Amino acid sequence: MSNNTVLIIDDDVELTQLISQYLSTNGLTVFAYHDGSNINQQLELHKPDVIILDLMLPAIDGLTICKNIRSSFNGAIIMLTALGDDIDEVTGLEVGADDYLAKPVKPRVLLAHIRAQIRRQSTLQQTVVESCIQCFEGRIKLDAGNRSVLMDEQVISLSSAEFDLLWLLAQKVGHIVKREALHEAIFRLPYDGIDRSIDLRISRIRKKLSDDPKVPSIIKTVRNVGYQLAT
Prior knowledge:
Elements: E1 5-9, H1 13-25, E2 29-33, H2 39-46, E3 50-54, H3 62-69, E4 76-81, H4 86-94, E5 99-102, H5 107-126, E6 132-135, E7 140-143, E8 148-151, E9 154-155, H6 160-171, E10 176-178, H7 179-187, H8 197-208, E11 219-222, E12 226-229
Helix pairs in contact: 1-5, 6-8
């Protein structure tokens, strides 16, 4: 865990200091800023594995930052908010956030989520047996080596978490994968029966694949069970 770097962007100075100290004590390398106006330079300088990103920031808000960096940043993004409104969670996940926590957040809870994201990335990278998988009658091609997705030979831009989710379904192509199994593989945490993160990611992937959400033909919903990727 000592080699993992966390970048915190939050304008709450007291909270940031508390979290930074706690994460550092637990073996993480932490860099903290109070706005994201120089986010690209911060990413280049520190090369973080995880970004803790506050929703409400001066100059440029967290959602905009997340949207702007998602295509180029392959690490995990955990968003924080004090608003406690479901629409903010939906919006955050739609622009590519990997996880979402409401303030006030306990440092030990945040640490658990950070570690879960790091384990998710590490585990998925280490357990790839096949480098390429084709599905949907060969129209969709996933390459685990460069984490790319092609549909009809056109590049589909997915976030790191979206690719991981689609890859999990592709490894079981044609078979139903339970929502609980997907949640535990992605977050490395037990599914509580309420969390909508997997459903929101599926919705976003469908949109990018032009899969009709009302009658999906690529990623099918098995009611009250999970999802199935078409062969």
